[in-house]
Amino acid sequence: MENKVTKVVMAYSGGLDTSIIIPWLKENYNCEVIACCADVGQGDEVKQVHDKAIASGASKVYIMDLKDEFVADYVFPVIRAGAIYEHKYLLGTSCARPLIGKALVEVAKKEGADYICHGCTGKGNDQVRFELAIKALSPSTKIIAPWRIWDIKSREDAVDYADAHGIEVPVTKKRPYSMDRNVLHLSHEGADLEDPANEPMADLCLICTRPEDAPDEAEYVTIDFDKGTPVAINGEKLAPLALLEKANELAAKHGVGIQDLVENRLVGMKSRGVYETPGGTLLHEAHLALESLTLDRQTIFFKNTVSNQYAQLVYDGLWFTPLKEALDAFVDASQKTVCGQVRMKLYKGSCHSAGMTSPYSLYNEEFATFGEDEVYNQADAEGFINLFGLPVKVNALMKEKAGLNTEEK
C-alpha cells in the first residue's frame, strides 16, 4: 500500500470470511476497523452481528436496515425489466450487492475512511459487484480484498485461523455450504454441490417446501400490478417489502422457486448453485403473463433483448452505469400499460397464470375468435400473405431461372 492504512470500513456479515478478516486487518495494517452490516433480509443472523464484530476487534458497528430500499429500488426494477440471468437465475445476490456497496461508501464518507474492505474471494462475482459500485460512487476510495493477497487458501484454512483467534464461525461439517440470504432469495454453493452429477440433498432447502412434500391441493393467488410494479396480493394492497414477504410465504409453501443451475461466472468459470426464490418467481411469472396481454408484439420482442442485457449488467455488477440508466428509461416507458390483475396457480413447484385482466388489454375477442365475426375479413389474409411472402417468391424465381435447386441452402 502506498498510503498508510489507518481506518477501514469492513463489509461485515458475521460469516466465516468476514469474521476472520477483522483481526487479520488489525494484525497486518495496525488499523481501526469499522464493521458495516447491510440488512437486506438475512434474518436472525443480523441479531448477532454487533456483538460478533466487536468481539472480533471492530471499534464500531453499523447495522443498516435496507430491506425496504432493497425491494422497492432494486428487486422490483429487476422484475419490471424481466431480468433473469441465463434463463434461471433471478439475480437475488446480484441485485443486492450494488445497494450494499452504496451503504459502504456512505459509512466510509461519514467516518472519514479512505479504505473499504470486503470478504469476497478472487474466484467469485461479488468482488466485481462490490468494487464497481464503490468505483462508481466514490472513485478515490481504495479497496482491500484479503482473499486476493493473504496466505489463507481454503475455507479449511479460514476455520483454522478462526479457531486460533477464538472466533466462533457458523460453518459446521453438518452444513458446509456457502450461503447468501436476503429477502429475495437464499443461495447454496459448495460441498457436494460442487459435483454437478450430485442431486441436491433432500434437506438442502431452508425456505421452500420440497415440491413432493407440498400440499396436494393447488392454491390460487391474485397479483395486482400498477405500471409493472406489484402492488397487491389477494386484493390486499401492501408496501413493497410486505408484498414480497407475503409472496415468499405463499410460493414457498408450494415448493415454487427452487432452481438448480450451472451458471457462467463473470470471472470465466462455471459454478453450480441451488437457489430458493419463491416470491420472486411468483412475481416474475405473473408480470410476464400480464405483459403478454398488454404489450404489443414489437415491444415484447425488443423487451426480450433488453431483459437479457439488463440481466447481464446486473450480474456483472454494472448497476451504476449509463447503459443501465438508459435501459431503465426504456423499461419505464414499456410499463405504462402493464396494469391489471393476474390469477396464479401454485401447485407442487409449478407456478403459472390461470387468468388475467387489464384495462389496457390488447386482446380483442372479436378479432381473435374462431367463431363467426363481423370485424375481420378473412379474405384480406390472401393479399397480406402475397406481400409478406413476396421476397420468398422472388428468391425462388431467381433460383429457378438460374437452374439452382430451390431446396439448396
TrEMBL record:
EC number, as in UniProt: 6.3.4.5
Binding site for ATP: A11, Y12, S13, G14, G15, L16, D17, T18, S19, A38, G119
GO term, biological process aspect, one: L-arginine biosynthetic process
SUPFAM superfamilies: Adenine nucleotide alpha hydrolases-like, Argininosuccinate synthetase, C-terminal domain
Keyword vocabulary terms for this entry: Amino-acid biosynthesis, Arginine biosynthesis, ATP-binding, Cytoplasm, Ligase, Nucleotide-binding
Occurrences of domain Arginosuccinate synthase C-terminal (ranges): 177-394
Keyword Glycoprotein: no
CC per GO annotation: cytoplasm
First-listed, main subcellular location of the protein, grouped into a coarse class: cytoplasm
Residues bound to L-citrulline: Y89, S94, N125, R129, S178, S187, E263, Y275
Pathway: Amino-acid biosynthesis; L-arginine biosynthesis; L-arginine from L-ornithine and carbamoyl phosphate: step 2/3
Arginosuccinate synthase-like N-terminal domain: residues covered: 7-168
Family note: Belongs to the argininosuccinate synthase family. Type 1 subfamily.
Assembly mode: Homotetramer.
Annotated protein name in UniProt: Argininosuccinate synthase
Upper lineage: Bacteria, Bacillati, Bacillota, Clostridia, Eubacteriales
